[in-house]
Design a protein that fits this description.
- Helices cover about 50% and strands about 0% of the residues.
- The longest helix is centred in the first third of the chain and has 33 residues, at about 1-35.
- About 0% of the residues are buried.
- By secondary structure, the protein is mainly α.
- The model has no long low-confidence stretch (mean pLDDT about 80).
- The chain is elongated and about 75 Å long.
- It has one helix at about 1-35.
Length: about 70
């Protein structure tokens, strides 16, 4: 009888955990769905008065690895 109760308790805990994870994933998906992402590269367009970034000099590869 104790074994049966332990198995039932284990199954209930697993089912509760699955339900909790499912609800958290649904909540996360809902948050992502309402979030409006910005443009693809917002750093390319800067407000007036901000300097444009300069490109660093190309780095020279060293070593023998392809």
């Amino acid at each position: 009888m104790e074994t049966l109760l332990a198995l039932v308790a284990g199954v209930l805990l697993i089912a509760f955990g699955m339900l909790l994870i499912h609800r958290l994933n649904a909540q996360h998906d809902a948050r992502i769905a309402v979030h409006h992402f910005s443009d693809a590269f917002p750093a390319l367009t800067r407000p007036p008065g901000h300097p444009t970034p300069t490109r660093a000099s190309p780095k020279r590869r060293t070593g023998t690895w392809p």
